[in-house]
Design a protein that fits this description.
Elements lengths: L1 E4 L2 E8 L4 E8 L4 E3 L9 H6 L4 E3 L9 H8 L2 E5 L13 E3 L4 E2 L3 E5 L8 E5 L4 E4 L4 E3 L2 E3 L9 H14 L7 E4 L5 E2 L2 H9 L2
Parallel strand pairs: 4-5, 5-6, 6-7, 11-14
Antiparallel strand pairs: 1-2, 2-3, 3-4, 8-9, 9-10, 10-11, 12-13, 14-15
Length: 197
């Protein structure tokens, strides 16, 4: 577990479904977990730092250990309404829509392009933007997921660039990525360079 900004925790753990490490985040003051896996320290870490009241997914594929957190702490699981079909039968979930404001003052923005439920979560209190699968970090550089994960790679990449350019009006210094390390400081400029002109 690493505190990347006051009250913002990041950790990585291996997601067996894809056989690779993924990133999760916890907003300690707000008691909100984003795309959460149980950390290596176990559930006891949350007992020491405050149990999560909410688990927010950046897309339908990122429920990860949301249900374990719900069972352990009574957390409410939140997913975008257009992705709820993926979670049928897994457990209770509260839906949200693009434009909604979630617990912790998190504002939901539409990304789409790679899948209809791809969202970006703007967290003004921490000057942060959390992204799902549209942008990843490899070796300290922002990039796309491999082409074979996209139906129409060139069209999808163009759509993602357009979506991220629209988000550049937001004020953020942290980019909380579901895949790869977060960008700590200068995140808006990094996303601007990634999205291009």
């Amino acid at each position: 577990m690493r505190e990347i900004a006051p009250g913002v925790w990041h950790w990585q753990a291996r997601l067996e479904l894809i056989g690779a490490p993924v990133s999760s985040y916890y907003l300690e003051r707000e008691r909100v977990a984003i795309d959460a896996l149980v950390p290596d320290e176990g559930l006891s870490w949350f007992e020491q730092h405050g149990a999560p009241e909410h688990v927010v997914l950046t897309n339908r594929h990122h429920d990860r250990h949301a249900w374990q957190l719900r069972d352990a702490f009574g957390s409410t699981v939140h997913c975008i309404d257009v992705g709820l079909h993926e979670l049928a039968g897994r457990g209770p979930v509260e839906s949200f829509r693009f434009g909604d404001t979630l617990p912790g003052g998190i504002v939901v923005h539409e990304v789409d392009a790679i899948c209809p439920d791809e969202t970006a979560l703007y967290i003004p209190a921490h000057s942060a933007l959390a992204c799902a699968d549209g942008v990843v970090s490899r070796g300290g550089r922002l990039g796309f997921v491999p082409d074979w994960l996209m139906d129409d790679p060139e069209r999808t990449k163009a759509g993602l660039r357009d979506a991220y350019r629209r988000l550049l009006d937001l004020d953020f210094e942290l980019l909380l990525l579901a895949h790869g390390d977060p960008v700590i400081g200068g995140a808006r400029e990094a996303l601007r360079l990634f999205a291009g002109p």
